[in-house]
Write a structure and sequence with these properties.
Largest sheet: 4 strands, mixed
Number of strands: 4
Strand order of the largest sheet: 1-2-3-4
Radius of gyration: 17 Å
Order of helices and strands: HHHHHHHEEHEE
Strand content: 5-15%
C-alpha cells in the first residue's frame, strides 16, 4: 500500500481505469446511450473540482472530486477518501441520486449539466432519439457560479429548429430538479436559462 496520496493524474493515467472507461462506454454505445467516454469523465472531473474550489473547499476535497472512479483502494487511497468518492459515484444517478456530501453534490451538478452536441454519437439518431436530439440542439452550455448572489446558473443556447424547449424539459426536468437539490447543499439557488430566458 502506497504512503503517497493518490492523485487525479495517477488515476487519469492508469491503464486499468482507462480500460474500464473504454469498456463501459462500449457497453453504452451498444445500448444506444449518449457519449460517456473520456470527454464526459474528464469534463465532470473538471467541473466538479472547479466548483468546489470556487466554493472554498480544501485542496484534498477538490482533488477527490476529480477522481470519480471505483478502483481506488488498490492504488493505495485511504479508506475514508475512497468511501467519499464511491459514495459520490453511487449517489449521482437519477434513480438513486442525492447530494449526501460535497463531492456527491459537485458530481451531480457536473454530470447533469453536461449537455452538448459532441455527446451525440451519430447524427442519424436525432430523428428518433429525443436524448440525442436535445444534445444535438445544444450549441453552447455554461455553468456559472455567482458567489455574491449565491446562484448557480446553467445557461444553454438551444437550436429550436432541431428541438423545441419543451423536448428539453421532457427529458431533463428530473435532472434539473436534482441539480437544484445539489446546489442547495452549497446553499446556492440553481437556475436554468435557455436562449436567454430563465426557466427554472
Amino acid at each position: 500500500m502506497s504512503s503517497l496520496p493518490v492523485t487525479y493524474e495517477m488515476v487519469r493515467h492508469s491503464a486499468e481505469i482507462n480500460t474500464y472507461i473504454q469498456q463501459a462506454d462500449a457497453s453504452l454505445i451498444a445500448l444506444g446511450f449518449t457519449e460517456h467516454s473520456f470527454a464526459h469523465v474528464t469534463r465532470c472531473a473538471a467541473v466538479a473540482s472547479h466548483l468546489l474550489e470556487e466554493l472554498g473547499a480544501d485542496e484534498r476535497t477538490v482533488e477527490l472530486a476529480r477522481m470519480a472512479f471505483r478502483i481506488l483502494d488498490k492504488m493505495g487511497m485511504p479508506p475514508a477518501d475512497t468511501a467519499l468518492v464511491v459514495t459520490a459515484i453511487g449517489n449521482h444517478d437519477e434513480g438513486t441520486a442525492f447530494p449526501v456530501n460535497g463531492v456527491a453534490a459537485a458530481l451531480i451538478l457536473a454530470d447533469k449539466t453536461d449537455v452538448r452536441r459532441s455527446r451525440v454519437r451519430g447524427r442519424d439518431t436525432i430523428r428518433f432519439d429525443i436524448h440525442d436530439r436535445v444534445n444535438w440542439a445544444v450549441e453552447r452550455s455554461d455553468l456559472d457560479l455567482d458567489k455574491e448572489q449565491k446562484t448557480l446558473t446553467l445557461r444553454i443556447q438551444l437550436d429550436t429548429t432541431v428541438c423545441p424547449v419543451m423536448d428539453y424539459f421532457e427529458i431533463f426536468l428530473e435532472r434539473m430538479l436534482l441539480c437544484r437539490k445539489a446546489a442547495e447543499y452549497f446553499q446556492l439557488s440553481f437556475r436554468l436559462e435557455v436562449n436567454g430566458q430563465t426557466l427554472l
